[in-house]
Amino acid sequence: MRLDKYLSQSGEYSRSEAGKLIRSGAVRVNGEPVRKPDTQIGPDAQVVLAGEVIGDNSLQYYLLHKPAGVLTAARDSRAQTVMDLVPENLRKRKVQPVGRLDKDTTGLLLLTNDGELAHFLLSPNRHVWKQYRATVTGQLTCADAEAFANGLPLSDFVTKPAKLTIVSSTPEESVGLVEVREGKFHQVKRMFAATGHEVTALHRHRFGPLTLPDDLPVGQCRPLTEDEIQALRQSVQTRKTDGTETGLSEGKG
Predict the structure, then answer these.
(1) Among all residues, which ones are annotated catalytic?
(2) Rounded to an integer, what distance in angstroms lies between the CA atom of residue 197 and that of residue 216?
(3) Are 195 and 185 in contact (CB under 8 A)?
(4) Beta strands 52-54 and 61-66, pairing class
(5) CB distance 236 to 248 below 8 Å
(6) Tens place of pLDDT per residue across the chain (253 aa)
(7) CA-wise closest residue to 206 among 123, 131, 140, 125
(8) Contact between 126 and 160 (Cβ < 8 Å)
(9) Exposure on the CB side of residue 238, measured as CA atoms within 13 A
(10) What pTM did the predictor assign?
(11) Reduced to 3 states, what is the DSSP secondary structure of residue 3?
(12) How remote is the C-alpha of 224 from its chain's centroid?
């Protein structure tokens, strides 16, 4: 990898800024000063800038507590997006949301620049479960839970079996926990509408093995731990009939 690209992956510098630092003599590789930005470095090279070792941060994984009223999009000229909540150094690393939450939906949103992992997490064949807490109009009943479990026929498709756990239920308003393994447009809201309920609030609490931390403020993000990254990667592995696993490439994450 080129030295200037390696430095820019730290998220602190653009490619041109990294080049200027290298030409100034501020960067050492394996103890020796290097002044050419296009210098090729190997995977075991030690890169030091201003006395600090710079690691390979090419792949980034973050968890965001999405607030209501924010679009899940890279950019929008008229409305605030989740990327406006992300530190600039992450935007430089081309971190993007994995999947979408509706504008008025709150909760857990995964952000990464690991395109391969994102693809697998969104694949319906991987059966990655998502859990939502939904507040709805009307009284939820066992019949609603059974309808979710059987799969609901909507206008353009039939949903895969989902899990509905009733938390509270009154004639005026109910709260339920919904677990789905799909993520189609307005799906949870449409599923409740199909059973005669309007969603008034929706919050995603869980995405695969990730759970939204109670202490993560709304609108804030934090990096995933190594254990969380490995759990995510393991969640998209599938087994063939011969017992071997298929999934992500080796050496990533």
Answers:
(1) 102
(2) 30
(3) no
(4) unpaired
(5) yes
(6) 899 888 887 666 788 988 999 999 999 999 999 999 999 998 788 889 988 877 666 788 999 999 999 999 888 888 899 999 988 777 777 789 999 999 999 999 999 989 999 999 988 777 789 999 999 999 999 999 999 999 999 999 999 999 999 999 999 999 999 999 988 889 999 999 999 999 999 999 999 999 999 999 999 999 999 999 999 999 888 644 444 445 565 544 4
(7) 131
(8) no
(9) 11
(10) 0.77
(11) helix
(12) 10
Exposure string (b/e) for 169-178, b if CB count within 10 Å is 16 or more?
beeebbbbeb
* Number of residues assigned to the chain: 253
Q: Which two tokens stand for residue 66?
A: 């999405």
Contact criterion met (CB below 8 Å) for 74 and 89: no
For residue 250, give Cα distances in angstroms to 122, 179, 233, 245: 19, 30, 11, 12
In the numeric block, the tokens 């008229």 are attached to 78
Burial 27-54 (b: 16+ CB within 10 A, else e): bbbeeeebeebebebeeeeebebeeeeb
- Are the C-beta atoms of residues 221 and 86 closer than 8 Å to each other? yes
| CB atoms near residue 126 (< 10 Å) | 16
d(CA 163, CA 43): 45
CB 102 within 8 A of CB 88: no
Amino acid found at 75: R
* Residue given tokens 């501020």 in the structure block: 26
- The encoded tokens of residue 244 equal 């071997």
Is 86 within 8 Å of 125 (Cβ atoms)?
no
Amino acid identity of residue 221, one-letter, is: C
51: CB partners within 8 A, 6+ apart? none
Q: Which two tokens stand for residue 158?
A: 């039939």
